[in-house]
Structure prediction request, 430 residues.
Amino acid sequence: MSNTVAITDSRSGKSVELPIVSGVLGDPAVDIARLNKDLGLFTFDPGFVSTCSTKSAITYIDGDQGVLLYRGYPIEQLAQQSNFLEVAYLLISGELPTPAQFKDFEHHVTNHTMIHESLKLFMNGFHYNAHPMAMMVGIAGSLAAFYHDSLDPENPAHRMITAIRLIAKIPTLAAACYKHSVGQPYVYPKNNLDYCSRFLDMMFAVPAEPYNVNPIAAKALDLLFILHADHEQNASTSTVRLVGSTGANPIACIAGGIAALWGPAHGGANEAVLKQLHEIGDKSNVAKAVARAKDKNDSYRLMGFGHRVYKNFDPRAKIIREMCYKVLNELGIQDPLLEVAMALEDVALKDDYFIERKLYPNVDFYSGIIYKALKIPVEMFTVMFAIARTAGWIAHWLEQNQERDVKIGRPRQIYVGPGMRDYVTLNDRS
Prediction:
């Protein structure tokens, strides 16, 4: 039996046999490269939901079984035993580091956390109440103007130093965006702290008094960063690869990923969860909100439940749920909105409507709750996502630039505008 798929054009009777491409795991794909040449046809796949745009060895997802693997390692094992910097190394290099390799990697990241002082002038140009993601898109892209000594995609040394710089500096930029939005002085990174503790210190420390990072808060943040580090070919990652296909420098590519992440259907999902909790207001209103969500004639839907990829359950949600309760208990949080969230969770886990439709709380539901418990403002939620996902984005960019034959991204379209027509001079138009 040949490893091909035959496609026949019923209009002309012409046929073409297209090869089937298989990976290590997951469904195979049909290589349609010859389809247009042989049959004069393109494929039509809005959102590219049935189209593989690349081969990748970084992340594997089985949405039906609730499986997420980073370089073959189950997310559950990494979440329990690893840390974010080790996961970042894994995504970038393909293998877990030896103790010596990790020490070296951590050293390099730690010593690249500071940003050029001129970037403060950049920050001060933003309006005082600008959205942090708006600032992040601009300020991240501007890094190429300050660190232009190592931007050659063809140079392996340039690729690696830029990868390290981005992983190191994005948290510094993120914290600066927050400080600007609240009118507080920027806090320099303290390199004696670990990755997540350093970020929390830059976020919440002030010159007026000492600040001690809660280890539970740092651990929770580290876990969230692991869970958000990569998620295969989603909108932002594909944007990074699409920009990268033009030969653009890695900083421009990551800035493109940050811009794509901003949308509420992608990285802004956990922000949308918290906004909805605000709308519900009190746990006494949960039943009404649930009834609206069940009503077929009502467009209202509950944010943070179900997932377009995971048809059964989100494996990340199962991990972060435990940490969510640990954080709430450890910090002694008493918040009406969190009570609303817990009431919604209780319904989703017990109500037949949600169970039958597999509308379980997803990672965005619990991450939003944790961020709020850590006193991270809602407007910063997507920025937090960007910090974590930078590791995945740069891993994909590195993988792409190690390929021999990278084709520039050039999606096709079906034109539905006017047919050819003649120009009419201005005076002759009625």
Q: What stands out?
A: Residues 156-182 form the longest helix (27 residues). The radius of gyration is 24 Å. The mean pLDDT is 89.
